[in-house]
Amino acid sequence: MALTKAQKDKIDAMIGQNKKSMDIVQELVAAHGADVRDVMEYLKENKTLQGMLKTITHRTKDLAAAGDAGTREKYAKEVEQLSKKAIKILQTKAKE
To answer: pLDDT of 63-89, one tens digit each?
Structure first.
C-alpha cells in the first residue's frame, strides 16, 4: 500500500527534525499504519534528492571560489547535471 499524503508529510517533518531512519520507520509503522517497505523506499528517494541538493550547494560555492575558467566550467556543468536530475525526481514525485 502506498504512503498517504499525511504519512509523507510526517516523514518530511521528522527528516526536518533530523530524526534517524529507524526512528522514522518505527513511528510511521506504529502510530500511522504505514508499511515498512514503503517508508524505507520513500526515505531512500529522499536521501538521494538531499544528497544531490547538498552537492549542488557545495559545487556552487566551489564555482564561486574557482580561479581559472576551466575549473569554473567543470563545476558549472556538474551543477547543471545535478540540478536536472533533481528536477526530474521532483517532477516524478509530483505526478504521484
So the answer is: 888 888 888 888 888 888 888 888 887
- Supply the DSSP string of 51-85, one letter for each residue: HHHHHHHHHHHHHHH--SHHHHHHHHHHHHHHHHH
Contact call for residues 80 and 59 (beta carbons, < 8 A): no
Claim: this prediction has a pTM higher than 0.85? no
The mean pLDDT of 46-74, rounded to a whole number, is 83
Q: How long a stretch of residues is the chain? A: 96
| Residue type for position 78 | E
Long-range contacts of 39-45 (CB under 8 A, 24+ apart): 39/3, 39/7, 39/11, 42/3, 42/8, 42/11, 43/11, 43/15, 45/89, 45/93
- Among 75, 83, 37, which Cα is nearest to 59's? 75
